[in-house]
Design brief:
CATH topology: Maf protein
Keywords: Signal
Number of strands: 5
Oligomer: single chain
Helix content: 10-25%
Protein name: DUF3576 domain-containing protein
């Protein structure tokens, strides 16, 4: 397992944004190309998958974001949201499964929503990652950006983020639904950078963005 920062894959993101920002006659679609849009996002990292898988997935995510008119900016830019991903596998051979989770954080580094899903793949032997080919990566990226785009279109996501004092007591959360395929640890109990507790939960308490490494 590994962690790949989207900073190291910046050329792919820049290429995708360049294509998304140009029309057929070569003109740009916006007069403020140097400024991030109000709905712009930045990807922090993807934890858990081999670097080859991450490189394949980030290219697909960037392309899917561009096709939905979602601007992807660098981590050191000024995005409206930051996205951090976690991936894990279970099973082997034809019954292998790749599980993915995207946590979306607001400018105050509070988790605003969680996108999660699974992709069945046909792996070679016991290494489930071998089944995540270009087609599978494309399906994961398309579903992920569909859900992120749908959430960004809601009034809740459009509301200005306002920092508030921490609550006096931690609210009681419902018990998470953990699938048999999940190898994730609880974000409340795990150290910074650990993946979330469940692949079935969407939304949930706002949580700090783990420290960059």
């Amino acid at each position: 397992m590994s962690r790949v920062s989207f900073r190291s894959l910046a050329p792919l993101a820049v290429a995708g944004l360049a294509l998304a920002g140009c029309t057929a006659d070569g003109s740009t679609t916006s007069g403020t190309a140097g400024l991030p849009a109000a709905g712009a996002i930045a990807f922090e990292a993807i934890d858990g998958a081999p670097s080859t898988v991450n490189e394949r997935l980030v290219g697909r995510l960037t392309g899917e974001a561009a096709s939905r008119r979602i601007q992807v900016v660098a981590r050191d830019g000024a995005p409206r949201y930051r996205v951090r991903g976690y991936m894990a596998t279970s099973g082997s051979g034809a019954s292998a499964t790749v599980t993915y989770v995207w946590d979306v954080f607001d400018p105050q580094q509070r988790r605003s929503t969680r996108i999660a899903g699974e992709e069945r793949v046909a792996a070679q032997g016991r290494d489930a990652w071998t089944g995540l080919d270009d087609a599978a990566a494309g399906r994961i990226a398309a579903r992920s950006m569909d859900q992120i785009a749908a959430w960004m279109a809601t009034p809740q996501s459009a509301a200005p983020a306002i920092a508030s004092a921490p609550p006096a007591a931690e609210p009681t959360a419902q018990a998470p639904v953990v699938t048999a395929a999940s190898t994730f640890a609880s974000p409340q109990a795990a150290p910074a950078g650990a993946p979330p507790a469940t692949t079935a939960q969407t939304g949930g308490p706002l949580e700090p963005l783990p420290a960059r490494q």
